[in-house]
Amino acid sequence: MQTFIQLVVDGLSTGSIYAALALAIVLVNQATGLINFAQGGIAVLSAYIAYQFTVWGLPLILAILASVVVSFFIGAFIERYLMRRFEKGDPDTAVVVTIGLLTLITGICAWIWSYNNLQFPSLFPLDTVTILGAVVSVRSLGTIFVIVVIMLILQGLFVGTKLGLALRAVAINPESASFSGLKVGRLLMVGWGLAAALGAVAGAMVAPQLTLTPGMMDGALVYALAAVIIGGLSSPLGAVVAAWLIGVLENLAAVYVPFIGYDLRIAVPFILLFIVLILRPQGLFGRKVVVRV
């Protein structure tokens, strides 16, 4: 039982990292209708910015908050001066642009800070607590708590605020939104900026658990995309639940399913992905899209 609880809590902690990126992807999709593959690169750049602030002597919490603010403007800048040129064209072209942007940002991080592993300080203490006999790190619990708070904020943003409804309207039909008086360009910038700020939070949580390198988010991005598809592109709650489900099932399968083990546990989220796509293509919490012809 102790081992099971340990695996579940560790899975929730790992899943929370995937969830942070997944929420950013959902946010961009809700604001623009695009899948942003560059989100992992933006999170890495934000983590390096926070690291640089700590090098300059800023306390960690202030460094992270400063990186969130800087990342917001970076995201808005990317939308205004790069992505806007492609948003009215073929959506596939815009998606390819985000893939190229991921490569570019990763290269810029390597050029400025090199490929050497850097130690990023942890926002939470490295102490442990005992829950039903299982030893759980405070950092894991803190990571889970942060993701729950962000999820609730985003869910409330999209459902209960004028800004969230305006972002959704722009993503669904920018022309109609413009005729309704909404400032489409400004809203698109806000959507990208918020997603980049959320990526900064993801980077700050991932970097202490790994080491700060230009490619540290590559694996997490794959899991985050799987979580978004499983949970539903339109649901922040679905993205978080799916990310937690991936993290927990991956840990449990590695220990309790002999033929999977640690070597094949990466297949678990993709098996889950195939099952969800067959049974519920819109995702566990997604909405069916009805097109009138």
From TrEMBL:
Domain of life: Bacteria
Pfam families: BPD_transp_2
Keywords (A to Z) from UniProt: Amino-acid transport, Cell membrane, Membrane, Transmembrane, Transmembrane helix, Transport
Transmembrane helix in keyword set: yes
InterPro entries from the UniProt entry: ABC_transp_permease, BCAA_transport_permease
Entry keyword annotation includes tRNA processing: no
Signal peptide, first to last residue: none
Subcellular location: Cell membrane
Family of this protein: Belongs to the binding-protein-dependent transport system permease family. LivHM subfamily.
PANTHER family xrefs: ABC TRANSPORTER PERMEASE PROTEIN, BRANCHED-CHAIN AMINO ACID TRANSPORT SYSTEM PERMEASE PROTEIN LIVH
Protein name according to UniProt: Branched-chain amino acid ABC transporter permease
Organism, scientific name: Microbacterium invictum
